[in-house]
Design goal:
Number of domains: 1
Radius of gyration: 22 Å
Order of helices and strands: HHEHEEEHHHHHHHH
Largest sheet: 4 strands, mixed
Distance between the termini: 31 Å
Strand content: under 5%
Helix content: 55-70%
């Protein structure tokens, strides 16, 4: 998957530039909404807010998220079987290290990986995941998350989540300022003649930017995250040699009757299945953080084996496109051999 990882990095760089552009546009529009001629000041405020968020990111974004989720780090004696799975999949993937493992006390089954660098990565699972899934299914989920780490997705998703969070925060601040009278003051200062009409046009354009900006940023963020899910699914099938484990895990997670309690729009794409759609529709839309769960399961179950080539063939039949590059398909080989087990929940 070397080609796709490189392509994802290029897309990530382009996405970050676009999202920063959206952030600056919202800052300028917000300044103009609050006071005529204050657009440049608004840009400055936007960059300051982003700077604060980036400081949080640089000093431990994963720690902040994990604390917000009330996650606690596990030791091997706390859950030997889970540690065995993580170690097994780390070895199968050739990762070179074993990520830290955190447990979240939440009844909804789900999992995610996060980290500013691969070596600081954390795989977090909920208690609901361990209670509802058997060993094969948990292994499929863990392999998927390690696939994200191996493919360097967690770095981008963590950084993009910080930027999207900044855009959402800035938009909320602007709307509150407008409700407190900024927009009315702008109107009162712009009465009379063509200048007044120009100010009205500026206000209308600024309103559109503030309304549509966060939506555009979310669309960019979600579209980039969807492609990465297919690659992580392919990685899971390759590492476990058992695609059915992940397929049944995805079905169980997507049918959970309750949503994860600590999720937000900025963090939802990090999970293996969007926790905001628990018990609801899992079909595709422009605002979907993940590909259709039914489609992901169908691709996994249509694999003739467990290699990258098998996943690519199943993906092409379902999507009429390509997800894994030719170089990776030529050099891919089996990384682990295992026999499916029938063990119960962990």
């Amino acid at each position: 998957m070397w080609e796709q990882i490189q392509a994802n990095r290029r897309r990530s760089a382009a996405l970050m530039v676009l999202m920063v552009t959206v952030l600056i546009a919202i800052g300028y529009a917000g300044g103009e909404l609050i006071a005529p001629g204050a657009g440049v000041f608004g840009i400055g405020v936007a960059l300051v807010v982003w700077g604060v968020q980036m400081l949080v990111y640089a000093t431990g974004a994963e720690t902040v998220l994990l604390q917000g989720a009330n996650a606690r780090e596990l030791q091997k004696e706390d859950s030997p079987q889970l540690f065995n799975i993580v170690e097994e999949m780390s070895l199968a993937s050739g990762l070179g290290f074993v990520p830290r493992i955190h447990l979240i006390d939440d009844p909804s089954p789900n999992a995610f990986a996060i980290g500013r660098t691969p070596e600081k990565s954390v795989v977090a699972v909920t208690t609901g995941l361990l209670h509802r899934l058997n060993r094969d299914e948990v292994q499929g989920v863990i392999a998927h998350e390690i696939g994200h780490i191996k493919n360097r997705d967690v770095q981008f998703m963590t950084l993009a989540a910080v930027l999207l969070g900044t855009i959402i925060i800035l938009s909320e601040v602007i709307w509150r300022s407008v409700r407190l009278g900024g927009r009315s003051r702008s109107r009162s200062n712009s009465r009379g003649g063509g200048g007044g009409q120009a100010q009205i046009i500026i206000i209308l354009i600024a309103l559109l930017v503030v309304i549509l900006g966060p939506l555009v940023a979310q669309l960019l963020y979600f579209a980039c995250s969807r492609k990465r899910e297919y690659l992580a699914d392919a990685s899971s099938a390759q590492f476990t040699r058992y695609p059915e484990g992940l397929a049944t895990a995805l079905e169980k997670i997507s049918r959970a009757p309750v949503a994860v309690s600590f999720v937000s729009k900025a963090t939802a794409p990090m999970f293996i299945v969007n926790p905001l759609s628990a018990g609801g529709s899992t079909t595709f839309s422009l605002f979907a953080t993940h590909p259709s769960t039914e489609e992901r399961v169908r691709i996994l179950r249509n694999m003739g084996g467990a290699s990258l080539a098998d996943y690519e063939a199943a993906y092409r039949r379902a999507k009429h496109g390509s997800v894994i590059g030719a170089r990776s398909l030529q050099t891919s080989a089996s990384t682990a051999i295992r026999t499916p087990s029938n063990e119960g929940p962990i």
